[in-house]
């Protein structure tokens, strides 16, 4: 654009060509006249050397003043180009460059004095917005005018710009002021920086940066994301600063060395952080954590939207980082996370998923932001888990204190948890786990793995701090599989029980929840022992403990196998297979033998090594010689016929196998005939009694001896152990349905008590279920827990011995530290290895000549082949 043109239209320039001829002078410049000749025989005239630079430069200098004075219409650009050409061709290029540099400086100084100095002084926050905007507008106009004029001057001095500066000799790389030569455009930009922004007459750059920061601050005070009316002006100023190089030897327009990056950007970022530090402190003092996070998000959105219109992308990202650092960096983020009443812990309790998602997103780019969130989440979960553990233990202790306590023992009693408390503990733990899993999925990056790891670490601590975690989880599974949860059963075409479509989903959720808690248990071998006991009861006691779905049992074992391997579920799968094989065996027996035994007997043949059964209940006869074997349970003749028939059938199919009968694990249904009541004449009263096998053995004794029998007599007739007989008699004579009468009356059974048939027995239904009285619940549970622990400890020793021998055989030589480390890893899926126990097992293996110590180092072991 031509500032001096009346209509402001473009300047029309003719194509300028470099002259193809040379002449010694121009109009007004002394030199040889055209056509002057030299005669022979005459001494040539010697003209005094004349400097051509001053008159030619005066013409160019006047043109520069005319360009800056908006009077370029009257100039002949072709003539000016030829003038510059002749100066360069006469070796005056460096002088011309220096003179142009001085002319630009003079014009820029004049512009500063004429346009910037008269403006009102800057008064900081009290300055009117109009004065701030006026300052920036004047500065931008000066910049635009200078660049337009510089383009015209560059066209006039094109020959100097293209031919002299690039072809200068090494000695001519500096101008008359001793500064390095550069193109006319970079020279003009640098002169603007030196004589306008860094003018000796006025601190233009400092004031410009202050004005920019003040306008930005006032824009922030409005609290809106809408662009302000002066966003375009700010963009023009920042573009100008980006075009101006930073002073120094590497001056140029490359990123990182401009006035924008060196003068404005650091001040802008520092002012941003200071502003938001003040604002965040005010907001944090009066807001909840959720409100503060929402306010921080609004600030970030505002800076992002407004910054996109007038600052560089890198500066915008740095600005957002400064806002995050001021609002959530340092201890601010920790204060928000741990804010009392509304921090992460309370948001987790109140299911504030939206606020938690906002916290996760905002702290993602803050140093250690997510690390602090994970630690806070882990601490909160451990705290909630401890509350659950304490509440359940308190309930259990209250129940135990109200129950009969076992007799004092020299061995400390292990903690015993009732079925109700065990179920309550697992249910509450699963509720907590489900709530946290939902939170991670919805709030923490759709399942951030690092947060999942923190949750798993917390639950490992919670679960293993509970003294009976393995037993309680096994009891919970047992309770669900016996009750079937909320499942409804249907029968398929083959008559087998199955689950409906919706029930399959519920069962799958249940199995996943169980396996999720199971993974946190370190003592998985203790869980295995209790699970085998519960599984055996579900499979063998159809009236009390029978599982509602064999498919669910197998699905549960399949998940255990995936987590712990085949050896973990091998015996439990064998138990299920035994039940299935026994059913087929009984069908074959009834079909092939067809022996009429007067009764329907069902036998389940079980593999002894798979089932967690104690030795059969036996006693020693007082008349038996010392050292002879125990006396077994005495079966009545009516039962022995069926038993002998089955033993013969089984022996014909399997050679070399011996059957050991477990009477304490069986059940029976017998038909009892009682005399009619005296007031009623008629047939005897009939009842079908569902009892245990031990109760059946006692009742059958009264068929041959209908009169009263003493406890001692029944002991001889049945062959039962004394404790088993007493509990059986309690079941029949002291329970809800009293088939026998006890004399004297009372709940305790003594050896001299008398028992007879209760002829006045009545029941509301024909089928009567008589529960077998077990040992006192607390005492029995403690004894069972103690026995289970003893078996587990012995099993651990065997496993550790085998693992040590395998490792040493493979390595041949290992240090004690390496052995403990590898042994811990090898047995991690079963239990947590105790280093002290490892030392004891190593000593045992050394005594048994499996290992030996190295003669050079006692802490190094060697395998003995």
Explain what you see.
By secondary structure, the protein is mainly α. Among the domains are: 1-19 and 50-202, Cullin Repeats (5 helical Cullin repeat like); 276-376; 662-774, 2-Layer Sandwich (Ribosomal Protein S5, domain 2), CATH 3.30.230; 779-863, Arc Repressor Mutant, subunit A, CATH 1.10.10.10. The protein is 57% helix and 5% strand. It contains 29 helices and 11 strands. The strands form 4 sheets. It has a 3-stranded mixed sheet with strand order 3-4-8. A hairpin with a 6-residue loop joins β10 and β11. α18 (469-483) runs parallel beside α20 (524-540). The radius of gyration is 51 Å and the shape is elongated. The protein starts with 52 loop residues before the first helix and ends with a strand. Residues 1-42, 248-256, 404-413, 486-502 and 617-631 have low confidence and may be disordered.
